[in-house]
Design a protein that fits this description.
This protein folds into two domains: about 1-160, 3-Layer(aba) Sandwich (Rossmann fold); about 190-430, TIM Barrel. It has 17 helices and 17 strands. It has helices at about 30-40, 55-65, 80-90, 100-105, 110-115, 130-135, 230-240, 260-270, 290-300, 315-320, 325-335, 355-365, 385-390, 415-430, 435-445, 450-465, 470-475, and strands spanning about 1-5, 45-50, 70, 95-100, 120, 150-155, 155-160, 200, 205, 225-230, 245-250, 275-285, 300-310, 340-350, 370-375, 380, 400-405. The chain has about 475 residues and is an alpha/beta fold. The longest helix is centred in the C-terminal third of the chain and has 16 residues, at about 415-430. The strands form four sheets. A seven-stranded mixed β-sheet has the order 2-1-3-4-5-6-7, sandwiched between helices. Strand 6 and strand 7 form a beta hairpin. About 40% of the residues are buried.
């Protein structure tokens, strides 16, 4: 059988200006599915609608040689997925269309109701489920006997057997990265010039921490826990791709959560003399340790992203971050000693915040030696503790996936306009400081990487060219081109 796997998206609406766009990563989930299918004798093709302008003719050509279609669905890309699924059924009404991914895991049966052209919805991990679905298409297994799915039968939506979580994730085959060789990833348009060719790597699933703003599968799936691959398994994958890729983006929620494992991974990489750049997209400040960071630097770590969230201890406590301001300073200063490119995210508008809190966060961010900072208003996301509590208290509806924490929703102390103004003020305060500009010019010459300066000029021109569009960008009413 041949499976066509699709990442839906709208290339016209890629936000290229922010830290990570959809083009920064390959669709890793689809590549895991592709590996599982290929290892069982099936043929696989991937279409990435973010990486290329896929025409209807191209889709039709791919469908003609396919026996089934699998589509990864994210809430942000739900509308493009509906459009693509409609085209698929117009071209071939009988082809099985399987949807999965975060949107389906959080909404489960509802996602199939909202996707009238889809035949099967996969909840949770799909590496084993997709093989059972293939058997069903071949007439070898009933859908009712497959774990973790919803499916259509005689105009009804039925469920299969209860979801199963993969306990030993070392058993999952490495992603079939060759399926996206035709595409180029690594689009860090603002701030960091990543070495091509780029791929991504995930070494764990879930997170052992309980930050209240974070959307987590474990809030919906009791069996979903923090699971780690062994250091040996991780390093074997890196060695397998070392000769092909120059940069690896580590996309774990918290790659360094187990420091003992992290030490072992970097010890093994140093022993193997791996020549590759690593970008760590998820790290906590309480895992910062000089001995570990020295190993990371020697092994090729160039970039690290922290979720700092606030410059106020009471806000950090409200979010259940379980970190403190001195830990933040220590970690950031240690990362600066290693000459890592440091990125940090901050949230504005917790329901306990006053204007003074917002000022404190802006001032705190400006006091840290960070290369790139991202500020965003607090949003109550489906699957987060904050969202769950708000639903239970009848403050927001269960049908709402993301709710801005403003005064009109009874989730914050500021109006929407104030949140937008504070967010723009934070960006301007951070990036237009003379000290910051001088430091970045100096670092650019040292690194021989001028992308941050070039993109900084784009940012400056953006806000001078159209003064009101900053608000439109934050609202999502205008794309950044």
């Amino acid at each position: 059988m041949k499976f066509l796997l699709i990442r839906p998206g709208d290339r016209e609406k890629i936000y290229r200006f922010f830290i990570c766009s959809p083009l920064s990563h390959p669709p890793l989930g689809l590549l895991y599915l592709g590996a599982a299918l290929e290892n069982n004798g099936h043929e696989v093709e991937v279409l990435d609608y973010y990486a290329e302008d896929v025409s209807r003719e191209q889709l039709e050509k791919s469908l003609k040689s396919s026996d089934a279609v699998g589509m990864m669905v994210y809430t942000n890309d739900f509308k493009p997925s509906l459009n693509i699924s409609r085209q698929i059924k117009e071209i071939d009404p009988k082809i099985p269309l399987i949807i999965g991914g975060p949107h389906c895991t959080f909404l489960q049966k509802q996602s199939l109701i909202d996707s009238p052209n889809a035949n099967i919805c996969v909840v949770g991990e799909g590496e084993e489920v997709i093989l059972d679905i293939a058997k069903n298409i071949q007439g070898k297994k009933n859908l009712s006997d497959i774990n973790g799915i919803y499916y259509r039968e005689n105009k009804l939506i039925k469920s299969g057997k209860p979801l199963k979580v993969i306990e030993n994730i070392d058993d999952i085959p490495f992603p079939a990265r060759h399926l996206v060789d035709k595409y180029e990833y690594g689009a860090f348009a603002f701030g960091y010039n990543i070495k091509k060719k780029v791929t991504s790597l995930i070494t764990s699933k879930g997170c052992p921490y309980q930050c209240r703003f974070c959307s987590r599968y474990s809030n919906l799936i009791k069996e979903w826990s923090f699971r780690k691959r062994s250091a040996e398994n991780v390093v074997n994958e890196i060695l397998e791709i070392n000769d092909k890729y120059r940069s690896i983006m580590v996309v774990d929620d918290n790659f360094l959560a187990d420091k003992k494992r992290a030490h072992k991974i970097f010890d093994m990489l140093l022993e193997a003399d791996v020549d590759i750049d690593f970008l760590i997209e998820g790290a906590r400040v309480d895992t910062a340790e000089k001995e570990l960071y020295i190993k990371m630097k020697k092994a090729g770590v160039k970039f690290i992203l922290y979720g700092l969230e606030s410059g106020n201890q009471d806000v950090l406590d409200f979010y259940n971050k379980n970190i403190n301001l001195p830990q933040i300073r220590k970690a950031i200063n240690l990362a600066r000693q290693m000459n890592f490119f440091i990125t940090a995210s901050f949230i504005i508008g917790a329901p306990i915040e006053s204007k003074k809190h917002v000022k404190n966060t802006i001032n705190f961010a400006c006091s840290l030696p960070i290369d790139l900072a991202n500020f965003a208003p607090l949003v109550y996301l489906r699957g987060s503790d904050l969202w769950t509590e708000a639903v239970e208290n009848n403050i927001i509806s269960q049908n709402e996936d993301a709710v801005l924490a403003d005064i009109s929703s009874s989730l914050g102390n500021f109006t929407k306009e104030e949140l937008i103004d504070y967010t723009i003020e934070a960006f301007n305060s951070f990036y237009f400081r003379p000290k910051y500009l001088i430091e970045q010019i100096y670092k650019a010459f040292l690194r021989r990487d001028y992308s941050l300066l070039i993109n900084g000029l784009k940012y400056f021109n953006l806000f001078n060219r159209i003064s009101d569009d900053g608000k439109k960008i934050i609202r999502g009413e205008k794309k950044i081109s």
